[in-house]
Specification:
The chain has eleven helices and 15 strands. The chain is an alpha/beta fold. The chain has two domains: 129 residues, NAD(P)-binding Rossmann-like Domain (Rossmann fold, 3-Layer(aba) Sandwich); 178 residues, Rossmann fold, CATH 3.40.50. The protein has an eight-stranded mixed sheet. It has a five-stranded parallel sheet with strand order 2-1-3-4-5, with no helix packed on it. A two-stranded antiparallel ribbon has the order 14-15. α5 crosses α7. The protein is globular, with a radius of gyration of 21 Å. The model has no long low-confidence stretch (mean pLDDT 96). InterPro entries: D-isomer_2_OHA_DH_cat_dom (IPR006139), D-isomer_DH_CS (IPR029753), D-isomer_DH_NAD-bd (IPR006140), NAD(P)-bd_dom_sf (IPR036291). Keywords: NAD, Oxidoreductase. This is Putative D-isomer specific 2-hydroxyacid dehydrogenase.
Length: 327
């Protein structure tokens, strides 16, 4: 049994706390309490993941740092600070697998909402206006999914199932991928952007992906295309996106993640035509919390028994490496 497990929470503690406590000497910490409770802990369950609190509370003495950190999320960018990344004795795991299908369903919903202009329909309803009009179809439309991890793959499979033409963008170009068919690398990315009706961002936020959708990339996109971001806000140069939307080069965008969250009230994105904003909820479902704790409990049992952990993050790359499905 771990000497001590610290659970970082905000508002609500995770479900199944009795099961967790049965396996470990458990201490619950708010972000304010974490600096006092983290030193000397054997393990950390970060139930809150988008926070600077873990970096700020990380012990200066490596001997006092936990040997295992589990993020109750798919993204781990908040954990990739030098003291954790550079310590070979610290294992970082995540909730890979929990958000794949929910996020794919959300992306399909966003594409339908953009194509059919549901926001416009709801606005007409609010005004009691009867305004028959045509809308776009999605069958045969081209989608570039930028990010070929498990979430990107789930998105690709679902969009293909409804008749969309899907390809991927990743580090390794290939033409025989089981989910994407073609995966574009650096040399063919610009041509893929020019063909795509929808560009879906599902990549992790790393040093290599931060700001990857900048002004030149947006300029390379097909006129009238739409951008969907369910990855991380830092993937996109938001000022450049605002400029391209205002100029009418893009037909719209659906954004679930932002550089600063919550999105500031003064952001021009709130009022831009054709833009849909959601509060980082693409992967959230009514069963999410139970699924997250199930993954953690499995890993906690493995940790206690000395067995290999699931979902071990390559801390240099910033994601779980799956050799059977290259990124």
């Amino acid at each position: 049994m771990p000497d001590r497990l610290v659970v970082l929470y905000r508002g609500n503690r995770p479900p199944a706390t009795a099961l967790i406590e049965r396996l470990a000497d458990t201490v619950y910490a708010t972000e304010e309490e974490l600096p006092y409770l983290l030193p000397g802990a054997d393990a950390l369950l970060a139930w809150v993941t988008i926070t600077p609190a873990i970096r700020e509370a990380w012990p200066d003495n490596p001997d006092k740092a936990p040997r295992w950190v589990h993020a109750a999320s798919a993204g781990v960018d908040s954990f990739l600070f030098p003291a954790l990344v550079d310590d070979p004795g610290v294992v970082l795991t995540n909730a890979r697998g929990v958000y794949d299908q929910p996020t794919a369903e959300y992306v399909l919903g966003l594409i339908l909402a953009l194509a059919k202009d549901f926001p416009g329909t709801w606005e007409h309803q609010r005004r009691r206006e009867w305004r028959p009009r045509q809308s776009d179809g999605i069958t045969g439309r081209t989608v570039l999914v930028w990010g070929t991890g498990p979430i990107g793959r789930a998105i690709a499979r679902l969009l293909r199932a409804v008749g969309m033409r899907v390809s991927g963008a990743g580090r390794k170009a290939r033409t025989d991928d089981p989910d994407f068919g073609t995966v574009h690398g650096t040399t063919t990315l610009r041509s893929a952007l020019k063909e795509a009706d929808y560009v879906v961002l599902a990549a992790p936020l790393t040093q290599g992906t931060r700001g990857m959708v900048d002004a030149p990339v947006l300029a390379a996109m097909k006129p009238g295309a739409r951008l969907i971001n369910v990855g991380r806000g830092g993937l996109v140069d938001e000022e450049a996106l605002v400029d391209h939307l205002a100029a009418g080069r893009l037909a719209g965008a659906a954004l679930d993640v932002f550089v600063q969250e919550p999105l500031p009230a003064e952001s021009p994105l709130w009022d831009m035509p054709g833009v849909m904003i959601s509060p980082h909820t693409a992967g959230e479902t009514t069963s999410e919390r139970e699924a997250l704790v199930e993954v953690f409990l499995d890993n906690l049992t493995r940790h206690i028994e000395g067995r290999p952990l699931r979902n071990v993050v390559d801390k240099r790359r910033g994601y779980v490496v799956d050799e059977t499905h290259p990124a």
